Amino acid sequence: MEYKLSPSILSADFCNLEEGIRQTEENGAVYLHFDVMDGVFVPSISFGMPVLASIKPAVKQVIDTHLMITEPIRYVEAFAEAGADILTVHYEACKDIRATLDKIKACGMKTGLAISPETPVEVLKEFLGEVDMFLVMTVHPGFGGQKLISETLDKVRTLRTMLNERGLETDIQVDGGIYAFNVKEALDAGANVIVAGSAVFKGNAGENTRELMEILKNY
Ligand code: DX5
Ligand code: ZN
Q1: Which Pfam families match (predicted)?
Q2: ipTM beyond 0.90?
């Protein structure tokens, strides 16, 4: 399994965004997590396509886009044009999940399917083998800086078992409340793509990235 760090710029200093991102890239983060919130699916509003379009040409990282928006199918093309490489949509936010995933593929992006903490992992069963990455939210989507809900890691364990039983090596991403002190719990549960916002961007992004990457490399 390949272990990857996906720093979430939600917690970055937007006046010094380029420098912050650069520090994560130089220290081994091959993904960059881009959280889009619409104030409807989640209470808060973050940023969207124009910001992504500015970041895209400045980095080599895989743009790992997490859409926390209602009916994301409406924006699939726009995010492809802006530079998203992976487009993750929420199970709870789509009327027609298959149509949404098909559109993401047709636009040349990798597919991601996310579940919030209250959604049982069994709903993902019918999509095994059909998506490139599952995202098991480890906090309620909407804000950075929350505490990891440990029960969500049971869902990661179940999902990894379901994938293993089918011989699938699909990525499992975890997002929310992950720090150097608890990342190993997520890895032990079966996650291999680690999102970290506060843990990377609060303080020195370069040093924080290095510390997390060290754990992932030695795992
Ligand atoms: C929360 C977002 C996360 C957020 C994580 O809804 O999806 O990506 O940035 O932030 P931390 O790592 O601070 O919990
Ligand atoms: Zn996210």
Answers
A1: Ribul_P_3_epim (PF00834)
A2: yes
Distance of alpha carbon 78 from alpha carbon 140, whole angstroms: 26
Convert the pLDDT of each residue in 113-149 to its tens digit: 999 999 999 999 999 999 999 999 999 999 999 999 9
Evaluate whether 176 touches 148 at the Cβ level (below 8 Å): yes
175 CB less than 6 Å from ligand 1? yes
Q: Is 7 in the pocket of ligand 1 (CB under 6 A)?
A: no
Ligand 2: distance of its center to the CA of 11 in Å?
11
Q: Whose CA is nearest to atom 7 of ligand 1?
A: 141
User: In this structure, what CATH number is given to the domain that contains residue 95?
Assistant: 3.20.20.70
HSE-up (13 A, CA, CB side) for residue 136: 30
Range of the domain at 143: 4-217
Residue 24: what pLDDT? Answer: 98
Backbone CA torsion sign across 197, 200, 205, 209: negative
CA–centroid distance, 115 to ligand 1, in Å, is 14
Radius of gyration (Cα) for the chain, nearest Å?
16
**Mean pLDDT computed over every residue of the chain:** 98
Q: How many domains does the chain have?
A: 1
